[in-house]
């Protein structure tokens, strides 16, 4: 155990897009674990779009980060010391004390996860973790996916979107369409993940691009971005279409309200449904998800790509880049 | 049986708000009923907001009215001749050949309804008919109303809205709030229908008026108008709030798309759900509805007000006025 460790603290709250100045890399003393606690050496931490909301001092589902304190977020690590009978030294644990190289936390707030042959532990931050479970809950429960559905997902090359498309294909979707922001991502969707169609949302009005990619309309839209693509999706909806609202990253950095879709009248004429959700309210699906997805991963039926950035001192740049779309697949910071 | 009768035909399609010129009052020959048909003397006809959509030549749930042909819509009448063993002369029937004084139609397209002691047959066009059933389906099935909910309904003094509020109160709502466009309507909501709070949407920003009327937020919004009030309702939603989208009358006469709500980001943070619906897809609730609501009407627990206009030659003005909000309660044309 080192006696000091590095962590990233919130230095100030952003107005609009976050900058390096909103964060500070600090060297802090690492306490010894007290009874009931464990010490963890973090192997990797997650940067996720929802973290932008935690930078604001506003009540939300995830508590705001506090000024002058280390940021939080998903991390995977190895237990180096334990004062708990429930967690053995050497265990692999998933927990929420990311943004730091070492963490001391109550054993009750860490989840021991198995080491799986051939599968990287970092998958617990992506396909096998919160992003994968978010895709699973949103597609199957919130959007009530049925075999034969045509599914559109935005931010499709991201950690959640890439899982949504693959889960839909593996479950009998008639057609899966994804949108992303670069040719490299479009190639990834079409060539690696087996999407039926994909478009770069920079190439023109989303409504036109989606109409070309889904000429017969869509049954399900998995919304990661909001804004123009949400309006396009509503316009492309078939009768009884369903929208799972997972995130609206297009507005996360906005400092004034963004215009909403102008075609909500279609909700009545086409009997549409739109639901927002948070994965942590659907823990009852966690076992089903893990069993299903770990199987598909082991069989090679689900492909993953990680954008890996090494070192805590790179984490802030990586986070800001992810909000701009710099990642393909799950963005991971190795520590 | 007269040999001729009067009907209102669609003369041209409107751009924006309809005018008298879009309609023509015509004298037409009345055919004798053929085998399987009945002849009906209409007692009253309905004018409803959804009819605005039927004036457009665009595919929708209700087929467009055809140029040079009589308009259609709900009507209640007495059977004057019958060539069907299923419908006796003298029966009271509900059917879709409104906008005319007499109608000849297949018996299979008419619904024989009972004459109920003390209840006006025109209730079959309002509280006991399509508007009442729309309120019932939207509140209980689409918005999944639960006792203890706080409910907000727009166009609350209209045929549907006045039922939504009363059904919610009778079913254990914690608080019912309505909006309408005149002081007379507000008085009606508060003094006659038992709403807990009501506001005139002309009195200021809807978000402020709603926050005053529902300081603790709302669980259910029954949307009849869309636009600014929808945005206000989303902003006032509590966690897991539900929106039933019944209509969006604020946009019906618009000739360009109206801006959408700017606060859809709340769908995730508050896990909101919004669903559009059409009553005719929920016929399985019709018997339950009729039994429940006819009982409450007979017991005097549901109050109704009709805005009655007499004569087919007044129907167009009445329809145009209803789109502007001239009615309190159900608007009926007696014939």
UniProtKB/TrEMBL annotation, chains A, B:
Top-level taxon of origin? Bacteria
**Which organism is the protein's source?**
Microlunatus elymi
Q: Which molecular-function annotations from GO does this UniProt entry contain?
A: oxidoreductase activity, acting on the CH-CH group of donors, NAD or NADP as acceptor
Q: What is this protein called?
A: NADP-dependent oxidoreductase
UniProt xrefs under InterPro entries: ADH-like_C, ADH_N_2, ER, GroES-like_sf, MDR_fam, NAD(P)-bd_dom_sf
Which Pfam families did the record assign? ADH_N_2 (PF16884), ADH_zinc_N (PF00107)
Q: Which UniProt keywords apply?
A: Oxidoreductase
Phylogenetic placement of the source organism: Bacteria, Bacillati, Actinomycetota, Actinomycetes, Propionibacteriales
> Residue limits of the Enoyl reductase (ER) domain?
19-333
Keyword match Oxidoreductase: yes
- Identify the CDD domains for this entry: PGDH
């Amino acid at each position: 155990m080192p006696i000091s460790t590095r962590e990233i603290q919130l230095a100030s709250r952003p107005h609009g897009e976050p900058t390096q100045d909103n964060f500070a890399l600090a060297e802090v003393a690492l306490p010894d674990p007290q009874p009931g606690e464990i010490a963890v050496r973090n192997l990797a931490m997650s940067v996720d779009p929802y973290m932008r909301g935690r930078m604001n001092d506003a009540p939300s589902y995830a508590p705001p980060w506090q000024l002058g304190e280390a940021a939080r977020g998903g991390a995977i690590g190895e237990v180096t010391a334990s004062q708990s009978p429930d967690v053995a030294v050497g265990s692999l644990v998933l927990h929420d004390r990311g943004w730091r190289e070492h963490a001391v936390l109550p054993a009750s707030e860490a989840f021991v996860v198995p080491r799986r042959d051939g599968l990287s532990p970092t998958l617990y931050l992506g396909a096998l973790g919160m992003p994968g479970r978010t895709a699973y809950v949103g597609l199957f429960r919130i959007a009530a996916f049925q075999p034969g559905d045509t599914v559109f997902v935005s931010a499709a090359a991201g950690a959640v979107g890439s899982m949504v498309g693959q889960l839909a294909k593996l479950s009998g979707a008639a057609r899966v369409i994804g949108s992303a922001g670069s040719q490299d991502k479009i190639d990834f969707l079409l060539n690696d993940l087996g999407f039926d169609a994909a478009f770069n949302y920079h190439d023109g009005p989303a409504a036109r691009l989606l109409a070309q990619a889904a000429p017969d309309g869509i049954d399900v839209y998995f919304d990661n971005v909001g804004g123009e693509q949400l309006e396009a999706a509503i316009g492309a909806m078939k009768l009884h279409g369903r929208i799972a609202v997972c995130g609206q990253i297009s507005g996360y950095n906005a400092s004034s309200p963004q215009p909403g879709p102008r075609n909500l009248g279609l909700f009545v004429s086409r009997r549409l449904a739109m639901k927002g959700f948070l994965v942590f309210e659907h823990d009852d699906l966690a076992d089903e998800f893990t069993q299903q997805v770990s199987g598909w991963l082991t069989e090679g039926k689900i492909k993953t790509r990680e954008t890996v950035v090494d070192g805590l001192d790179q984490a802030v740049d990586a986070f800001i880049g992810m909000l701009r779309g710099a990642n393909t697949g799950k963005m991971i910071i190795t520590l």
